[in-house]
Amino acid sequence: MWELFYPLQVGARVVIAAPGGHRDPEYLIRMSDRWHVTILEFVPSMLALFLAESSLALPRSLRWVSVGGEALPSELAARFAARTEAVLDNTYGPTEATVTATVHRCLRGAPGPIPIGRPIINTGTFVLDRRLHRVPVGVPGELYLAGIQLARGYHARGALTAERFVAHPFADSGERLYRTGDLVRWNASGDLEYLGRTDFQVKIRGLRIELGEIETALAADESVDQAVVVVRDGEFGQQLVGYMVPAGGRLVDVEAVRATAARLLPQYMVPDALMVLDDLPLTASGKLDRKALPAPEFTKREFRGPTTRVERLVTSAFADILGVEQVGLDDDFFALGGNSLVAPRTPLFCIHPIVGLSWCYSGLRQYLDPDLPIYGIQSPSILEDGYLPESLDELADRYVREIRQIRPSGPYRLLGWSLGGVIAHAMAVRIQAAGEGVELLAMMDSLAGARAAEEGSATDVSVSELLGGFGIEETALERISDQSLGGVAVALAEMSGHSVEQAEQVVGRLVSTADRNSRLMSEYSPPRFDGDIVFFTAAADDATGERAARGWENAVTGVIHNHAVAVTHWQMTSPDALTVVGPIVNQALREQST
Questions:
Q1: Residues annotated as catalytic (active site), given as ranges
Q2: In this predicted model, what pLDDT tens digit does every residue of 475-533 receive, in sequence order?
Q3: Most buried of 167, 352, 409, 544 (most Cβ within 10 A)?
Q4: Is the pTM above the cut of 0.85?
């Protein structure tokens, strides 16, 4: 509303464009020259259109331009500065905060992204995490607004009002905050930097993706003036589609842009299809009209047939999956319309518990989709005499290398019981640090650090843990007359058909491995994993059903989805436990794939 009242406060004239005129650069120039306009306001999409015509001279009377409603690219601000001496202000604010909440004056030649600035008078800005805690400088968080200009809520929409207008956690006078849904961070200069919409941070192929980051990578090519990325539903599920507008007088080489994006982004963020448009569709208010973007076109390259047996097998498989007559050596699976949902399935990697064996996860098979590959990761110490890891980090590094031999790049799915969950968490952190995605991190009654030491050592639970590691129920102890380690070795020999000597050797290795793993787990201090955790608590050991899960609250940025299982810790992979665990894990995997 300031656009109407501010000029009248100082005795200036308000010039209102004719209907549709705000989208016609030539008309705006004529009107500005006629009325000696000194102030103009645009959305960035319209300003880009305004500056696209190099033959159009900006009004000599122009002194100040305000932009808002969309992110302002630094390249666009630089083009503006090259065309006029007018001041450029980047403003930000939702309707619920009476349109303008922050402002930043753009400095000529300033490096980096354009901030949205600092709050205007009588406005409060808070960058908070999911638990409504303030985040440090440089850390992304959601922007919340406070102040006398906030709306009271949405008319006749109580549920939405309660969701967006929340109690002020730092005030005791009944004030409220407005949850903007915008992702921002404070920079070192004390300005807010806009990172994108939280609802533009989509989840596709099981990975969180910030569309604005992809758009920035596409626009990094000199031939691209504007870039927009959307998620579209295709024949084979969701696909990333990029739309580009050429820079003045340039031709866009789609493959060169794709190569640039591949250098700047992880593979899963490179768009499946790229399209070149003369201009981006705009709404009546001059903002980008995402719904009007055309559907992508998937095309084949000139056919070059396979020559070897392996090439014929691969191209034949691609053709069957994509439903096309033939696929050549130069064709790209994703450029033909495919995606990772129809590519070979992402396996589930199950990390061994403290004893070092992963046989205990075999009961999960009946609850998971039949075409899902499952791999059990076992301790190298069982077979390698000289492998004595000095830290849990060393174990995690080794196991990441192992799973990369099966799946060279992400996304990855990890599950672990007891120590296995702790290692899976450490692996997930390393995978993310390498720029790869983690679709699922599931942990079954896992403890780390001092709490793990408090809960007991491998010696205390060696017999139960041995049985669990072999996938044998703890109730099997009732059928073993000698419940010492030697007695368990004899029982295992009978079950496996091996000699007692061989069974004793295996049991000895397992006990030694468990003892070392117990120490490694108690010494481990977990870093923070960026995502959610599917957690299972052994409720028979913990009446609250929450103690183990709470121990990981500082080691995760997302939500810990805790599920109580009415068994003890050592029964977490028993048939009774897996009737609870299996369906929940399967549902989580399906949700990541949609």
A1: 569
A2: 444 555 555 556 556 655 555 445 656 556 666 666 666 767 777 777 888 899 999 99
A3: 352
A4: no
